[in-house]
Predict the structure of Ferrous iron transport protein B.
Amino acid sequence: MSPAEPLRIALLGNPNCGKTAIFNLLTGSRQKVANYAGVTVERKEGVLRTPSGRVYAVLDLPGVYSLRPLSADEAVTRDILTGRHPDEPRPDLIVCIADATHLRLNLRLVLEARPLGVPMLLVLNMMDLARAQGITIDREALERELGIPVVETIGVARDGAAELVGWLDRWPGPARPQGAHPPLPLHSLTAIQDVDGQAEDELRRAMDLQAEVRRILSAAVVEPAQRPSRDEAIDRFVLHPVFGPVLLLVILFLVFQAVFSWAALPMDAIKQGVEAVAGVVQGALPEGPLRSLLTDGVIAGAGSVLVFLPQILILFFFILLLEDSGYLPRAAFLLDRPMAAVGLSGRSFIPLLSSFACAVPGIMATRTITDARDRFVTIMIAPLMTCSARLPVYALLIGAFIPSRKLAGWLDLQGLVLFLLYLGGIASAMAVAWVLKRPQGDAVGAGTLMMELPAYRWPSLRHLGYGLYERARIFIRSVGGIILALMVLLWALSSYPAAPLGAEQPAIYYSFAGRIGRGLAELLAPIGFNWQISIALVPGLAAREVAVGALGTVYALSAQDAGTAVSLGPIIASQWSLATGLSLLVWYVFAPQCVSTLVTVRRELGRWRPALTMAGYLFALAYAASFVTYHLAKVWGG
Ligand SMILES: Nc1nc2c(ncn2[C@@H]2O[C@H](COP(=O)(O)OP(=O)(O)OP(=O)(O)O)[C@@H](O)[C@H]2O)c(=O)[nH]1
Ligand SMILES: [Mg+2]
């Protein structure tokens, strides 16, 4: 074998058995791990260097129950293993990962993969849980019965993959020369035989497979007679037709309360830090373009976005907790019926839920949806789920226009408004789904959800810590990268050309950006937007939180005295009417101000048309909803 080409390992296993956790341990990556099926939807590659210096290319794959794919993400796994993937050579070793607490289900896939003719290794993951549940596995018997080596791992322990790494370190390599496995014709795989009229064969094959699994289990595994029923007890409450939905609402509600009430202190600290830096710059530099660039462009722009870091982290703290505990698929189960009422199934729930973090991974997660029309509709409504980039905008406007009061002594009014905005997004998404599904004449309420409910688990602190760190890094990088760059550009466009002699308005009014803003304001005046908002919306097309930074810069440049715009909230509160504030809030429920989302839609569906349709309908909705809000608020004395 040529030394330049590392041996290729593919990780194969059922959904949620811990493949990505092992992948991260082997390669030092930080791919997303969570306690529900369908987290990984595309192939991810990493490099493992063993202690003796051997190098492997490791491939993490979407989880599958069988080599007969149902959805796009599962087909990826099948194609790579059979060598049918256009730009992926067949692996030299298949590392089958099995959840040791669910061997009955997991071993079927191992047996299905055996005829592929690629060397295999079985990894028993979740050994910590298996031991805790009193499951004893006779490894030698298992190796003998399966005819492949077996090692044990714990995906959530720092050293959990040590035995696997040791095995790979000593592996002599494939018997056949590397890469010599020819692509497998599909029909040679009993598992994916697909000939007409062979349903009976199919059934017999499945039963044979199951009998073989039973035989192996009885030879190698002893399970305690009474399996623990803790999960069932929890589920009796969580999945209860009445308590279940109430609990879900309470959880979501508390999350948004926390976003406001916990964040106040750290936000103040950041604000004061930014103001202190601005003060230092202000004192150190003489009045002029450089000082204006730094204070009005960089600090007022990027600083006013940075302030929202604590709220983003609090939101993600809860998202990560929910993801790791095993609660999410239960919520999907609860929502299967209401979603069926608009023609979708609970399968759309996880992609939509991911969209609360960001529509981009949410749209990618729709690959787990088998029905093409359902997938399309889910993609179209994903941007209506309130992503974390809207949080700075919402928080700014709510902070400025909604009084910070406790209702009935405990209910945070600002948190309540935020909760309602999220609900508004969800409700309009459901309405749009209903409209999109109707002309198809789809049988409403037909979908039944078949979904595995994972075991409840205590979230791992290490994982939580990593997750939050990752989020903070992404947010700070965007503030220091794209937002900063756009703010400098905006500052330049807002500072030149200079104001004419005897000007009555602040200089920005006469600048390039001011002219653009005033032009746009003609169009946006009916929904209550002034020229400053109109300016901010233009760079805000790139990403939503940019608009907050842009408002910071615009108002810093509009200020007659040299105040910093980190106190943007009070400024807009005094200069805008309540109707304008509410109208902008509602605008952000709908407006598709995110280039990455549109690009992702284009990539997932392969065409620009749906992406442009999406942008069009969302802008139309935003305009209409803001128009109504603005005029209603004015009538009611806003
Ligand atoms: N207790 C325990 N938990 C584990 C172990 N390995 C993984 N987990 C947890 O199991 C869940 C699933 O892990 P993932 O790595 O996302 O599973 P996956 O196989 O990649 O799942 P898909 O990408 O959906 O196919 C996560 O909550 C992990 O933290 C383990 O050995 N012990
Ligand atoms: Mg995974």
